[in-house]
Amino acid sequence: MFASFPMWYASLFSGYYLILFLILFGLIIRGVSFEFRSSMPEERKWIWNWTLAIGSLMVPFFFGILFISMIQGMPMDSNGDMTAGFTDYINLFSVVGGVALTLLCYLHGMNYISLKTTGPIRDRAKKYARALYWALYAGLIVFAVLLYIQTDFFALHPVSTSILLAVMILFTVIANYCSYINKELIAFLTSGFTLIALVALLFTGLFPRVLISSTSSANDLLIENASSSPYTLQIMSYIAISLIPFILAYIAWTYYVFRKRVKHTEIAGYGE
């Protein structure tokens, strides 16, 4: 990003420094909690259980805050410098977006646990998922209403915005239904497609902008003026095309290695 879109990178990372710091902090405490929990006595494991939970919830919530404030628009001058206050970041729409994204990620995780485990862990994941899908439906409806009121997505891109919202809801319904009929793989895939549709919705709605200025549309950061030179973009494209196959192969390999279900009797604390 810093090489291909330096202006976007500079404005985004300076304007959202605190939000990105909180996301990074959540990732750090989530990562270290696995290690520290394994070395703690049983009576103190709860500390790192909560640390893991808090870190896992922080990341999607603050990503939701970041993305929603991006599409709402932030006070930004012609140089791309933001002068945002608390309510520019934290408001009804951004909180709804943060909660909705957290629910989407949580349910995606529950679908994966249902797919990869057996016994009481699988049953508990399915129980939580079935209950929370109804909260997600409410969140998606509120999100769609606020998207119409607070952004210009429907004015600029009415067809693509409507289609992608419908696709998100459709995939959510399919995932919910599949969780009831024990089609865990389809539930996992469709909840993943919901997240992909959400990202597509946000960036097709932004196009051709990458950051919206709430002070003046003349200060919007566009793809054209945020990107590097054509030669730099060409080089970065070659690098990306060269690396993506290795990344996809690695991801495919990890899924293959962990293709079997984890039995609850193999997990400490179960079946003993």
TrEMBL record:
The protein's matches in Pfam families, at most eight in alphabetical order, are given as: Cyt_bd_oxida_II
- Report how it sits in the membrane: Multi-pass membrane protein
Gene Ontology annotations for the cellular component aspect, listed alphabetically: cytochrome complex; plasma membrane
Which InterPro entries does its entry note?
A: Cyt-d_oxidase_su2
**Is Cell membrane one of the keywords UniProt gives this record?**
yes
Gene Ontology molecular function: electron transfer activity; metal ion binding; oxidoreductase activity, acting on diphenols and related substances as donors, oxygen as acceptor
Instruction: Specify the domain of life of the species encoding this protein.
Output: Bacteria
A Gene Ontology biological process noted in the UniProt record is: aerobic electron transport chain
| Subcellular localization, as worded in the UniProt entry | Cell membrane
Query: So where does this one cross the membrane?
Result: 6-29, 50-69, 89-110, 131-149, 155-178, 185-207, 235-258
Primary residence: membrane
Keywords of the record, alphabetical order, are: Cell membrane, Electron transport, Heme, Iron, Membrane, Metal-binding, Oxidoreductase, Transmembrane, Transmembrane helix, Transport
The first-level EC class reads oxidoreductase
> What EC number(s) are associated with this protein in UniProt?
1.10.3.-
- Which NCBIfam families does this one have? cydB (TIGR00203)
State the family it belongs to.
Answer: Belongs to the cytochrome ubiquinol oxidase subunit 2 family.
User: What is the designated name of this protein?
Assistant: Cytochrome d ubiquinol oxidase subunit II
